[in-house]
Amino acid sequence: MRQMKIAVLVGSLRKESLNLKMAKNLIKIAPDAIKLEIVEIGQLPLYNADLDSNPPFEWVDFRQCISSYDGVLFVTPEYNRSVPGCLKNAVDIGSRPYKENVWNGKPAAVLSASPGAMGGFGASHHLRQSLVFINMPTMQTPEAYIGKVHELFDENGDLNNEKTIQFVRNFTQAFADWTIKMQPDNRDSNRLEG
Q1: Which helix (H) or strand (E) holds 57?
Q2: CA dist 165 to 73, 102, 146, Å?
Q3: Whole-structure pTM value
């Protein structure tokens, strides 16, 4: 089977973002079945339906980019118990205009990470609500809420905790399996067998 291409969207634009560090570690740890690539979202102008008839080139480029991937992994902090605005903006841009949703049918997973003990639980669940609406089959388990993330990296930005490394390894393997299972050909055969 071919290697699945996965877009990684990071919900923090900060240069030294802990979630960006986590995303880079996911890329290193991911199994060979999937290739993770960070897709930038900080350059996207805010979504405005008035621009749908003549969208900014950044929207067009982003939509085309996402269309080329087999699945999407969202790595996000929590802002005010919800999804960071930049990530929600990217979700909105990809879902519009109506009936041109580039997310439609793409397998997804969410990993939230936060210095707080709850690990971004609120952001993850708010994001999942949007993913249901835009028809992204989202991996249910293992759930990934990584708390006290600021303690988990060494001076090079690599994970320094063996339990976290093993958890991330298991999470990315589960997502690889989920992505393969959710590909259109596999979904059709699963329906026939079920």
Answers
A1: helix 57-67
A2: 17, 32, 11
A3: 0.94
